[in-house]
Structure formats: C-alpha cells, structure tokens
What does this fold into?
Amino acid sequence: MSVRRVAPDLHAADPTEAARFYADVLGFEVVMDMGWVATVASPENPTAQIILMSEDASAPVRPDLSVEVDDVDAAYAAVQRQGAEIVHPLTDEAWGVRRFFVRDPDGNVVNVLSHR
It folds into this structure.
C-alpha cells in the first residue's frame, strides 16, 4: 500500500466561502465543491490540498486529516489487525470514494480513502 496524498480537513462554516479565501489569498484552485465540503489544490502541485468541511455527509464526525492510499481495503485490514478504533466503517460513498475513518492514539480522526 502506498500513500498518494495527505490533506488537512479544516472546519469551515461555509466551505465555498473558505475555498474562495484560499484561492484569492494563496492562489489555490477550487477543485471540488459539494456545498458541505470543498477542496482547494495548488495549481503547481495538485497533491498539496486543503479540505474545508462544515460537516460530513455520511459519517458521525468530521475528520481531522485525509489520507488517500492506493489500496483502502489493505489499509482497513491493517487497522483491524492493529485494533485501532474505527469511527466510520469502510464505505463506498456516492461521490466516488471508498473510505473509512480511524482514530489515532491521540484522538485525531483520519479519513483513509481511495478513489473508485
């Protein structure tokens, strides 16, 4: 399994407005905006991203961090072997990702995903 991208998930009361701020002030591009979540990325380095969320559409909590991997099923199996707390089970989401949330030893919630 390899990591493809890592992005912080920041709370935003209005993700669209927050994305516009990062675009206008720091030169990010808005690469996704679903209303409740927006993602901005560097035009020069598209894996340099910030995810802005008001809520999570299908999970009980907002994650603190998103990690995209090439094999989310292998990552899920590794988390289960370790016995870490799974906050949101492995799920195929309507917006094209397969993901789960795990809590790290310090309580941070990590969204581990692969695009389908």
In short: The chain has one domain: 3-115.
